[in-house]
Amino acid sequence: MLLWLTEYLTQFHSGFNVFQYITMRTILGALTSLFIGLLVGPGLISSLARLQIGQTVREDGPESHLSKAGTPTMGGMLILVSIAFSTLCWADLGNRYIIVVSVVTLLFGLIGWVDDYRKVVKGNSVGLRSRWKYFWQSVVGLSAAFFLFSTAQIPAETQLIIPFIKTVNIELGWMFVVLGYFVIVGSSNAVNLTDGLDGLAILPTVMVAGALAIFAYAAGHIRFASYLGIPYVPGVGEVSIFCGAIVGSGLGFLWFNTYPAQVFMGDIGALALGAALGIVAIVVRQELVLFIMGGVFVMETVSVILQVSSFKLTGKRIFQMAPLHHHYELKGWPEPRVIVRFWIITFILVLVGLASLKVR
Predict the structure, then answer these.
(1) b/e per residue, 264-283, with b = 16+ CB within 10 A?
(2) Which of 49-53, 111-115, 302-306, 315-319 shows the lowest mean pLDDT across its residues?
(3) pLDDT tens per residue, range 203-250
(4) Which residues does 110 contact at the CB level (< 8 Å), separation at least 6?
(5) 296 by DSSP, 3-state: which?
(6) Is 170 helix (H, G, I), strand (E, B) or coil?
């Protein structure tokens, strides 16, 4: 909205042209969503506490988590509101990439909201049953992937880019839809599994989103794309503003979610943010780089898969508890130590992912 306003005002003063630059609007998008989060957060937390929308804690989990019972949850609403408002203000709402990443994020947030609502408001411990959760995730994921495939205008939009290798771009064809589905749904559930400690999921999400903003800007800039040897995708640079909004909203939420947390994001936030990272990685053609940068999310997911598979096949557990962060807690690591070390790992992996821009 503000983009359109500044476009109109340029006829009266050339200084408003600064708002046409993606870099400027990305910064403003991050600051806007951060400001909204810090402004709205205290009121939202108070409302959630007053309505007794509190977290339930697994009895078989670490004993240190028992004190977290009743902490307000569904704080992901704060993240989604911040992202949505900031994107509406600073992004080009006619850009098809902005439309698809925004719609996917909000729809996954809706799925998470239904799950959270049934658990914490209706008192249904099951929430949204797994088969229905995966069904609706699949519907949204497949629809988004098919939309991108059917509206692709150049070959680069549906090719698989191999990190660190300059000359290998694999033509996917219809497999693009399959890959897109797994990236969106897998990323969504991976972030959700990671969201088990105070701030554990949100800062890695912020770091990965910030890196994806760089990829989006480079892929949407014909000179930078040519120099770096990555596919040029017209219009995708606009997604940088959306990524900036994720960064700002994530930092705003972390202000209240840092240890000891005043609020948890719940499925409404975790499912939406994971899907957002997945769909952004697809439109900027960096699915494999997302796999690298989101290594913490991957480790958490793999730990659950290995734990369940091992128990079903042998009756034995590999880890003391899954996801992986609980294993280290039960080994005696204090919660802040687990969180910060996972943050450090993510920082390193994000740098490795960014290095793929140049090392090709």
Answers:
(1) bbbbbbbbbbbbbbbbbbbb
(2) 49-53
(3) 999 999 999 999 999 999 999 998 888 889 999 999 999 999 999 999
(4) none
(5) helix
(6) strand
Single-letter residue type at 159? Q
For residue 266, the surrounding DSSP H or E stretch is: helix 266-283
> Which tokens go with 19?
């708002």
What contacts 249, CB < 8 A, 6 or more positions away? 33, 34, 36, 37, 78, 79, 80, 82, 83, 86
The closest alpha carbon to 279, from 216, 234, 226, belongs to: 216
CB distance 174 to 149 below 8 Å = yes
Helical segments of 294-357, H only: 295-314, 324-330, 335-355
Residue 72 falls inside a structural domain: no
Count Cβ atoms below 10 Å from residue 15 Cβ, excluding itself. 10
CA dist., res. 39 & res. 322, Å (int) = 35
Using an 8 Å Cβ cutoff, are 80 and 37 in contact? no
Q: Which is nearest to 110 in space by CA: 88, 89, 85, 132?
A: 132
Alpha-carbon distances, residue 70 vs 42, 63, 116, 264 (angstroms): 17, 15, 14, 10
In which element (H, E) is residue 90 found?
Answer: helix 76-90
Element (H, E) at 140: helix 130-150
Nearest to 84 by CA among 38, 135, 32: 32
Total of domains in the chain: 1
Q: Assess if residue 293 is contained within a domain.
A: yes
Whole-prediction pTM: 0.94
Query: For 285-325, how does the pLDDT look when each residue is reduced to its tens digit (9 = 90+)?
Result: 999 999 999 999 999 999 999 999 999 999 899 999 989 99
At 252-264, the pLDDT tens digits run 999 999 998 899 9
108 within a domain of the structure (yes/no): yes
Q: Residue 355 corresponds to which amino acid?
A: A
| Cα torsion 69, 52, 337, 196: sign | positive
Q: Residue 192: give the domain boundaries.
A: 77-156+166-355
Q: Is residue 251 part of a domain?
A: yes
